Amino acid sequence: MTVIETTAKPGLGTLTGIGVGPGPAAYLPLAALAALRAADVIYLPRARGAAQSVALQCLEGIDFDCSRLREIEFNMDPDRDVLRSHYAGLAQELAAELQAGKALAYLTIGDTLTYSTYGYVLAAVRDLLPACVCKTFPGITSYAAAAAALHWPLGVGKERTLILPCPDEATELRREIETHDIVVLMKVGERLSWVLALLNEMGIAAHCAFARRIGLPGEVLQSGLAQLDAEQASGYLATLLIRKNAIEKRHQP
Q: What share of the chain is helix, strand, coil (3-state, %, to 5)?
């Protein structure tokens, strides 16, 4: 496991990014678990409007000091000025704790630096405290967890794989599918209905797959999407695996 670390300044605490889940608690690497248990303060993001942090759900059954949890409410506002203000304020709070010499852990769902809020937090903290020790443990991406749960290879031979936040237009997504062998589609949300219609129109829905809330209540895992109900399946923490052509079998029948 690779750990990226800066040079320490005496008296400063440490900031550790930890990817949890997605889903089963057993996905947490041992080194990250040790850092979680050693932290003085554990920052726990929760989406505004959610009753419980998904990151906390991903830690269910793991023994650690829950009194050290400090919840952060996130509102993913499309206004970038609002987001900048939010991250600046959060970074100042973390910097104050680090200057007090505390060991901080910041939890995020999936991999720490793949479409993660932790990337913004890390950059903001390092701007304020360049000498602070920052450690980042890689986590398991949603698409890797989905592929494993569905026994769905993400790449075979020389296939080209694109990881893509879902475009707003079907024509753009069609172009990406036509120019790649596999497309991992993230941040689908309410676009799922027209995405499924496009896959059926292109005649490829049968060898695509869909996952939502892997290992958590409300889990959806489906290979072959011709009959997937978009209304029932859409929601947060969804990943769609698109294969342009059926996978080639290389074993002897």
A: 35, 25, 40
Same domain, 130 and 152: no
Q: Does residue 162 sit in the same domain as residue 130? A: no
CATH number at residue 173: 3.30.950.10
Closest CA relative to residue 199, chosen from 210, 187, 211, 189: 210
- Pick the closest to residue 43 from 79, 113, 111, 95 (CA basis): 95
CA atoms within 13 A on the CB side of 7: 0
End-to-end CA distance of the chain: give it in Å, rounded: 38
How is residue 213 annotated by DSSP?
A: S
Is the domain of 234 the same as that of 158?
yes
* Residue-by-residue pLDDT tens, the chain, 253 positions: 444 444 445 589 999 999 998 887 788 889 999 999 999 999 998 876 666 788 888 898 899 999 999 998 876 666 677 778 888 889 999 999 999 999 999 999 999 999 998 999 999 999 999 999 999 999 999 999 999 999 999 988 899 999 999 999 999 999 999 999 999 999 998 999 999 999 999 999 999 999 999 888 889 999 999 999 998 888 878 999 999 998 877 777 6
Domain that holds residue 164: 143-243
Dist. CA 238–CA 22, nearest whole Å: 11
Task: Output the pTM of the full model.
Answer: 0.86
From 139, 155, 181, give the residue that closes a domain: 139
Domain presence at residue 30: yes
In a domain, 4, yes or no: no
